[in-house]
Amino acid sequence: MTDATPQPVFLKDYTPFGFLVDRVELTFRLAPTETRVRARIAFRPNPAATDRRFFLHGEELTLISAAIDGHPVTPAITPAGLSCEVPDAPFTWDCEVEIAPKENTALEGLYMSNGMYCTQCEAEGFRKITFYPDRPDVMAPFRVRIESDLPVLLSNGNPVARGTGFAEWDDPWPKPSYLFALVAGELVATSERYTTSEGREVDLNIWVRPADQGKADYALDSLIRSMRWDEEVYGRAYDLDVFNIVAVDDFNMGAMENKGLNIFNSRYVLASPETATDRDYENIERIIAHEYFHNWTGDRITCRDWFQLSLKEGLTVFRDSQFSADMRSAAVKRIEDVMTLRARQFREDNGPLAHPVRPESYTEINNFYTATVYEKGAELIGMLRRLVGPEGYRKALDLYFSRHDGQACTIEDWLQVFEDATGRDLTRFKRWYSQAGTPRVKVTEDFKDGTYTLHLEQETPPTPGQDKD
Ligand code: SER
Ligand code: ZN
C-alpha cells in the first residue's frame, strides 16, 4: 500500500511510452495463494517517444526474478511499479512474480470466484498480474500458457495446445493489457458453430457453472444475432476461430469485452423461462451485443488513454441501442433511452459530479465509468449521425475502421473521419466533448405581418470547473 496522496492525471500531459512491445508471452502456474506468473516480453525503443525511462506498472506483486536478455537485473521497486536501466536497442524482458488470487477481494487483476479463477483488467487491473506498461496505447500480440488441474482453461485468442494440466492460447491481434483475460474452472458450455460473412468458421461457447447448465440459450441466440447484425449494418465480421463468454458470480462490472473471451456478471447471461422477466431477456440481449460490438469498437480500435473512454463506450452504447431498436421496437427503445438519460445523466450533469464526455483530468479512472461517458457519449454519436445522415455516417465509420484498425485513438481521430468522409466542419461540434452540463434551449416564437419567426437561445449553466458557458 502507498501512503502518498493519489495524484491527478491530466489529458494535456499525454506522452507516448518509450518502448514498443512486439510480443508478450505469459505462463501462469495457478494456485490460490501462490500463483506464479512468468512474463517474457519483447521491447524495442519507440521512435515516436523522447522519454526512454523504463517504468513498468505493478501493484501487489512479489518479484521472484527479473532479467534482461538473459542477464539477471535488480530493478528499483515502488508500490506503483518498477524501473530499471535498459539497453537503447531491442531487448527481452523476463520476469517472474507471485500473486495470491484467493486473497484478491478487489476483484481487479486475477481473482477467485467460487473456486474458479478469472480476471478483470479494465482499467488498470493488469498491473496486479505482472509488471507491464499497463496503458491502453501499448498494444501487443499475446501468447498465454495456463498450468492447472482444472478442466477448463481459457484465455484470449485461439487455442493452440492442450494437454494434461495445461492449455496454450495465442491472440494474433495486438491488444492493450486491459483486454487480457484468463479463466480456469469447472465449467460447462452451451455451444454453436457460426460462419461469418467472410467465411470464417467460429466456435461459439458460453461457459457457466454446471448447476447453471441450460440457462445460456438466450445469451447464445443473442450473440448469433449480434454477430450477424454487425456484419450487415457495419460490415464488421468476427476475426478469431473461437468466441468464448464466461458467466461469473462475482464481478465488478456488468460485463467485459476482453478479446475473444468476454466475461460477464452471471445475471446478464443466465435466464430460464420460469424465472426471467421480459426485462431480463432485454438486458441479456443488449449486454451480449454491447460486449460483442466492442470487438471492433474497443478491441481492434482502442483508446489512446483513459480520457478517450467515450471513444469506445459512447460508440458501443450507440451501436447496441441501434441493435436493440432493430431487434425490438425502435420507438420503445428510444423512449427508454431518453428516460434513462434524464434520470441518470441529466442528474449527473446538473450536480457536483458533472464532467465532460471527455474529462481533462482524473485521479481514479474507475470513477469515470459514468452515464456521461457512456450515455451522453452515445447521444453525441446519434447527433453526429443526424448531422451527416445515415449514408455519411456509414462512410465515416468505414473510414474509421480502415484508417485506424490496430490503433489506439483519440476523439480528434474520430471527428476527423467524419470531416474527411463528409466534408463537414465539426470544430463547433467538438465542444460537446469538452463542455459539461445539460444545455438549456429557450424557444420563443413570433408572428408579425405574415412572417413567423422562431428564436432559439441556448445556454449551459455553470458546472464545477466550468463557470462560464
Ligand atoms: N468495458 C466494460 C463495458 O462497458 C466496462 O463495463 O462493457
Ligand atoms: Zn462497453
Care to describe what's here?
With 469 residues, the chain is an alpha+beta fold. The mean pLDDT is 97. The chain has three domains: 9-186, tricorn interacting facor f3 domain (Immunoglobulin-like, Sandwich); 187-273, Zincin-like, CATH 3.30.2010.30; 302-434, Neutral Protease, domain 2. The chain is globular. The chain has seven helices and 26 strands. Helix 1 (217-234) packs across helix 2 (278-293), helix 2 crosses helix 3 and helix 3 runs antiparallel to helix 4 (330-349). The strands form eight sheets. An eight-stranded mixed sheet has the order 6-5-9-3-2-12-15-14, with no helix packed on it. It binds serine and zinc ion. Serine binds at residues 122, 253-257, 290-291, 313, 369.
Key phrases:
alpha+beta; Neutral Protease, domain 2; 3 domains; 8-stranded mixed sheet; 7 helices; 26 strands; binds serine
Give a quick summary of the entry:
By secondary structure, the chain is α+β, with helices and mostly antiparallel strands. The protein has helices spanning 217-234, 278-293, 309-327, 330-349, 371-404, 411-422, 431-434; strands at 9-10, 19-29, 35-45, 55-57, 62-68, 71-72, 76-78, 81-83, 91-99, 109-113, 116-120, 140-147, 152-155, 158-163, 166-175, 182-185, 188-195, 201-208, 242-248, 255-256, 261-265, 302-303, 361-362, 408-409, 440-448, 451-459.
